[in-house]
Design a protein that fits this description.
mainly alpha, about 140 residues
C-alpha cells in the first residue's frame, strides 16, 4: 500500500499534501520489516514537512516519532533518545504536562532513557514529572 501511495503521487510538486502523506505512508509501511529502507524515506518526509508544513506541529511530531522508532529498530537508540527528548519537549510546550499526547511521548522518552542505561534520570523523570501528570490527567486508577 505504501508503494502504491508513493507511485500515485510521485509526480506531484513538493507543496502537494498528498505527496507528503504518501512519503510518510511508504516510510511507515517499510519501517517494521525493512527499517534500513524506511530510514531515508522517513528522513525525507521530515525534511519536506519542515520545509513546507512547519506550521503543522502535529504532523511534524508524528513524523519525528516515526523516525525515532525507526532509529530504535536499527539499533541506534542514542539517536532515538535525542529525538524523543525533542519530541517530548515540543509536546510539553504545545499541550502541557497533563495532555495525553505529552504523557504518551513522555513514556516513549522514559523507555528510550532506560534502553540507554540512564536509570537514575528515568526514575526521577517518571517519579517527578510523568506520574504526577498522568495522575492529574487520567486519575490514579488508570
Amino acid at each position: 500500500l505504501g508503494w502504491a501511495c508513493w507511485k500515485m503521487y510521485l509526480g506531484r510538486p513538493d507543496t502537494d499534501g498528498f505527496r507528503c502523506q504518501s512519503i510518510g505512508a511508504l516510510g511507515n509501511a517499510l519501517g517494521p520489516s525493512r527499517p534500513k529502507e524506511a530510514l531515508p524515506v522517513l528522513e525525507t518526509n521530515l525534511e519536506l514537512r519542515r520545509r513546507r508544513w512547519s506550521h503543522d506541529h502535529h504532523g511534524l511530531l508524528v513524523t519525528q516519532t516515526n523516525l525515532a522508532t525507526c532509529l530504535d529498530d536499527l539499533g541506534r537508540p542514542d539517536e532515538a533518545l535525542v529525538l524523543r527528548r525533542e519530541i517530548y519537549a515540543k509536546h510539553l510546550a504545545l499541550h502541557g504536562a497533563a495532555h495525553k499526547s505529552t504523557i504518551l511521548n513522555g513514556n516513549n522518552l522514559a523507555c528510550s532513557m532506560r534502553k540507554e542505561g540512564h536509570f537514575d534520570e528515568v526514575k526521577l523523570f517518571v517519579r517527578n514529572q510523568l506520574l504526577p501528570a498522568a495522575r492529574q490527567s487520567l486519575g490514579s486508577d488508570h
